[in-house]
Amino acid sequence: MARRTALSTPGTGKPERIATVLEHEIRSGVLGFGDRLQSENELVQRFSVSRNTIRKGLEELSSRGLITTKVGIGSFVTFDGMPVDDAVGWSRALANAGANADTRTLRLEVMQDAELAARLGVESPFF
User: Fold this and answer.
1) Using the 8-state DSSP alphabet, how is residue 81 labeled?
2) Domains, the chain, ordered by start
3) How many CB atoms lie within 10 A of CB 21?
4) Given 22, 57, 104, 111, which is the most exposed site by the fewest CB atoms within 10 A?
């Protein structure tokens, strides 16, 4: 009888299944906010897949808002267990959680786009 693992679940690709396993570890608290995930090489050995498959799984976790990856440094958990209310926005959610959130205007300029004005149904082409 074949041994069933998290990666042998039918109907999904290996990167998605790897992301799901790691997501479970993050959401259950096994991996906490700021923790560094295992290196790509360690994950390759753990899941017995190619490095490319691991990278795709990590990209999936990143798209789910659970990790960030810094080239040459590693992947780190960015999920803190508190869902962000999209109606409130990230800055307000961070401030409500006690974090220092700063917003700065780096550049402000007027642009002209007649095509955009036409698509929006406005008279002025300046934005």
Assistant:
1) S
2) 11-77 (1.10.10.10)
3) 16
4) 104
